Amino acid sequence: MSVENSADDIPPAPPVSDSRTFARGIADLVDGLRDSELWLHLGWTDIKQRYKRSVLGPLWITVATAVTAVAMGLLYGALFGQDIKWFLPYVALGFIFWNFIADSIKEGSVVFSTNEGLIKQLPAPISVHVYRVVWRQLIIFAHNIVIYLVILAAFRLDLGWSALLIFPALLLFVLNAIWVTIFFGILSTRFRDIGQLLTTAVQLVFFLTPIIWSTNTFTGEQGARVEGRMRLVELNPMYHYLEITRGPLLGESVALYHWAVVIGCTALGCAVALVVMRNYRARVAYWV
């Protein structure tokens, strides 16, 4: 047998899979975004199913948050001797934006495991389920922000042009909700205990974050003693996330370093989520 014939008998090398590339991961995100009709419908259906056959329907979202915010605002405002005109909007906004953060983490961590049937039967990018969670959180946020509008009218808060900073702040919130859902969703699909750990961690961080208390709570001699310790609050990223959203809506100026911290965390989180998408996106269907 000639050398040429032997060479012809050698089968060609199998094609190299591109499933674990950044291009495929980005394509999944783009394709999922284009399927907006699907995730918009699924997200709104989730809200309707949650309050099916109730009298108020989705308005229970607003009622529940309003009762909690007002009760906590009045109680802790009286305990700490705070001006209710400032402290009640402060607490209400804290609850509104914290619910967006906390629910994005907790619901994002189970997004794939709770949609096992759709993932296995529906030929759609997995990012569709990510956008579904984020869209659902935006719907809930839209219901809750009504509470702030009522308080704004009741207390006649003096807002300036800085209030418009809420729009880039919300954009950062959405980007963070996307990467958080991707990262923790894929991670907890592989390791199911992650979801339980996140629930506990979120509850702990709630008490470490200025939501029902503020850095202005301590004054006088007591405040002088704890002023150095209060700097530890700035090590909590959630503090900076709340500052860039709550500050503009309270008519307060927001220090630039708060924006720098949030933008830095967002960039780092998006980079990590993209790496996770590249390496493990194709395995989600096998893990659920």
Topology:
Layout: H1 3-9, H2 22-34, H3 36-50, H4 59-80, H5 84-108, H6 116-121, H7 127-155, H8 166-190, H9 193-208, H10 220-230, H11 237-249, H12 256-280, H13 284-287
Helix pairs in contact: 2-7, 2-12, 3-7, 4-5, 4-7, 5-7, 5-8, 5-9, 5-11, 7-8, 8-11, 8-12, 11-12
Strand count, sense and barrel status of the largest sheet are: none
Strand tally is 0
Number of helices: 13
- N-to-C series of helices and strands: HHHHHHHHHHHHH
**End-to-end distance, in Å?**
52 Å
Detail the poorly predicted runs: none
The shape, in one word, is: globular
Mean pLDDT: 84
| Structural Rg | 23 Å
Alpha-beta classification: mainly alpha
Strand percent estimate = under 5%
Description:
The relative contact order is 0.14. The chain has helices spanning 3-9, 22-34, 36-50, 59-80, 84-108, 116-121, 127-155, 166-190, 193-208, 220-230, 237-249, 256-280, 284-287. Helix 8 (166-190) packs parallel to helix 12. It has 13 helices and no strands. It is globular, with a radius of gyration of 23 Å.
In summary, what is this structure?
The chain has 288 residues and is mostly helical. Helices cover 73% and strands 0% of the residues.
What labels would you give this structure?
mainly alpha
